[in-house]
Amino acid sequence: MVDEMDGRIQIPEKKIRKKHPEKYLNASKIKNAAPGRYADGNGLYLVVDPSGARRWVLRTVIKRKRCELGLGSYSLVPLADAREEAARLRRIARKGGDPLAERRQERRIVPTFEEAAREVHDTHSQTMKNAKCAAQWLGRLEAYAFPVIGKMQVDRIESKEILGILTPVWIEKPETARRVRQLMKRVFDYSRAKGWRSGDNPVEGITRVLPKHNGKEEHFASLPYNQVPEFIQALQAAKAYIVIKLAFELLILTATRTSEALLARWAEIDMDAATWAIPAERMKAKVEHRIPLSGRCIEILKQAKELCMGSEFVFPGRKASKPLSNMAFLMTLRRMGREDITAHGFRSSFRNWAEEKTTTQRSVVEAALAHQVENKVEAAYLRTDLFEKRRRLMDSWAAFATMKPAEKVVKIRS
To answer: Which of 153, 176, 289, 356 has the fewest CB atoms inside 10 Å of its own CB, making it the most exposed?
Structure first.
């Protein structure tokens, strides 16, 4: 019977000793129950709050500790379902499992694509080459993926959404589309590993339904090598920060990558030996790269030394403690009205010049560009960086690139 004072079910003491209640509750008892706690049997209780709200609680032992697990509101979980769920959780506990951990896993919150992407970015940003790479990684997704799927949970995204993101840029900006596709694939692979989604990666196989490209890879826009001397003359006369102009010319004469020139440090330069040794951690292939410096390169470095304000960087920015911005060369090209080319493209200018105007071995030119030997057998036997041959090549390149307009020819040494 029910005690009117506290609303609890009162079972005669003799019955408690002999037998626990089993399936004691029914719809009528639940409906008429006053505030209190009512046993249904096997650890399942109905709790009626003073407000009249009814909810289920399971009392059981988990790893030798007595615990209470909420099973939900009676309005959402009917009696039969509550009994079934209570029995399932008790079976897990009897086998030594942890029902609490399982229910937390079941109730996990699946993140949105943007949340997952930012977590992947945070996880991998420490291993990215530099801050520019890290910013570009997230920037591409912010520009193309987040507006479409950023607010969607990662387990609800399908191939049709991926197709909608890539189709508008697949032909117009193929390299951008390729990188966005790679980044999205990484986010979904990570989400599958975290248990946020199951099944196939929605990015896989998407290229089979996208239009085919024209077969040409997108390269950095470059300047024909015969126009390089004229460009350097224009660069030297351009209205730009002198440190940027020096850095740009050094980049051209050494055929280095943008970040390698911008982040150059005096500790890497040996003026007496006319050598610049870029450490492995700053190189794309993660191998130290020694660069022979021509006479003009030494002149540039001496001038930069007078302007560096004691900075560790060869080409500091407005503050001596920081290098030039990674936008420095791009902005200079814009001011010069040369948005049709890129700083990186001068590596191609050098490569074409060496191929057409010299008899230099291909291996020497590739070494000058810090390209790795693709043939593994050849690479295993090649134990030299061909430094002295590269010095002759780079001296010839500097002589060609810096010749004055009046000079018709320049002697090229092979």
So the answer is: 356
